[in-house]
């Protein structure tokens, strides 16, 4: 199983935290990190807690055009299908994408097995009804952003994987944009259509997985004897989306939920 993330070099610190935390819980795994900009003189791959993957390794036709037309956020998400295909080819078992602003707190074995068993694993933004408390994000924000959070996706080595990645990549070449009024939210909204095409897929409902500001209203996080739990279950993966390290006590902005 390959696990990877995508960054521009300004997100190196995030990738280092994710890489170290993944190796702590899974010593046999090493994070694959695709860096979309030039790292010459900036990164020494031999000193990093992850393996560096370059854009050239993915053989993306039209990447130069995509790099000009897209913002950093759009470009980082647009190349995801090609990166997943590369990881699948390297592992022969399965590929898991995690956003760089995540940290692993416990083993992810059940998630890995679901990828092997079902070939596609998705995680919804929330698994319990959101409270109508006047706060953001609300249900309308989630409808705009998409049902599934693409800070995570797991794809197994199946025939459907080729179909999915071809279909997804074709759309992200030009339509991986932030334009909610037209129904676009980078790579994420497209995946709302995928369950209707898949013969088999799994929705990961573990309350300790992909904990983030959009689902915290229905999840209680607590520490017991040095370990973290969510609704009584072990915390496995926390998503620090919206966290500003320069203002650690402030809540995330009220922007639309994203990866």
Explain what you see.
- 29% of the residues lie in helices and 19% in strands.
- The protein has one domain (2-239): Spore Coat Polysaccharide Biosynthesis Protein SpsA, Chain A (Alpha-Beta Complex).
- The chain has a 7-stranded mixed β-sheet with strand order 3-2-1-4-7-6-10. It has a 3-stranded antiparallel β-sheet with strand order 11-12-13, with no helix packed on it. It has a two-stranded antiparallel ribbon with strand order 5-14.
- The protein has 7 helices and 14 strands.
- It has helices at residues 12-25, 63-69, 72-78, 80-91, 109-118, 139-145, 159-175, and strands at 2-7, 32-35, 51-54, 94-98, 102-104, 120-122, 152-156, 178-179, 184-185, 202-203, 221-224, 227-230, 233-234, 237-239.
- With 259 residues, the chain is α/β, with parallel strands linked by helices.
- It is globular, with a radius of gyration of 18 Å.
- Helix 4 (80-91) packs antiparallel against helix 7.
- Strand 8 and strand 9 form a beta hairpin.
Provide keyphrases for this structure.
Spore Coat Polysaccharide Biosynthesis Protein SpsA, Chain A, seven-stranded mixed β-sheet, globular, alpha/beta, 29% helix, 259 residues, 7 helices
Summary?
This protein has seven helices and 14 strands. It has 259 residues and is α/β, with parallel strands linked by helices.
CATH topology: Spore Coat Polysaccharide Biosynthesis Protein SpsA, Chain A
In percent, how helical is the residue content? 25-40%
- Record field, number of beta strands: 14
* Main β-sheet, spatial strand arrangement: 3-2-1-4-7-6-10
Distance between the termini: 22 Å
Average pLDDT score: 93
Superfamily (CATH H level) name: Spore Coat Polysaccharide Biosynthesis Protein SpsA, Chain A
Which band does the percent of strand residues land in?
15-25%
How many domains? The number is 1
**Largest sheet features:** 7 strands, mixed
- SS-derived structural category: alpha/beta
Annotated CATH architecture: Alpha-Beta Complex
């Amino acid at each position: 199983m390959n696990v990877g993330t995508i960054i521009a070099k300004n997100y190196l610190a995030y990738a280092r935290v994710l890489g170290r935390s993944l190796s702590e819980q899974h010593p046999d795994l090493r994070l694959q990190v695709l860096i979309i900009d030039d790292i010459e003189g900036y990164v020494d791959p031999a000193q990093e807690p992850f393996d560096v993957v370059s854009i050239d390794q993915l053989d993306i036709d039209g990447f130069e055009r995509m790099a000009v037309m897209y913002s950093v956020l759009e470009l980082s998400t647009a190349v995801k299908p090609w990166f997943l295909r590369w990881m699948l080819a390297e592992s022969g078992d399965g590929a898991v994408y995690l956003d760089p602003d995540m940290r692993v707190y416990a083993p992810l074995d059940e998630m890995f097995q679901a990828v092997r068993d079902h070939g596609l694993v998705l995680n919804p933004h929330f698994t319990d009804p959101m409270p109508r408390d006047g706060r953001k994000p609300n249900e309308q924000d989630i409808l705009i952003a998409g049902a599934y959070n693409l800070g995570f996706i797991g794809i197994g080595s199946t025939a459907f994987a080729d179909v999915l990645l071809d279909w997804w990549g074709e759309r992200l070449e030009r339509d991986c944009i932030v334009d909610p009024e037209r129904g676009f939210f980078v790579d994420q909204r497209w995946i709302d259509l995928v369950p209707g095409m898949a013969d088999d897929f799994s929705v990961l409902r573990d309350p300790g997985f992909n904990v983030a500001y959009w689902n915290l209203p229905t999840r209680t996080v607590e520490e017991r004897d040095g370990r973290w739990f969510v609704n009584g279950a072990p915390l496995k993966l926390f998503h620090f989306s919206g966290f500003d390290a320069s203002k650690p006590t402030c809540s995330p902005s009220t922007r639309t939920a994203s990866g």
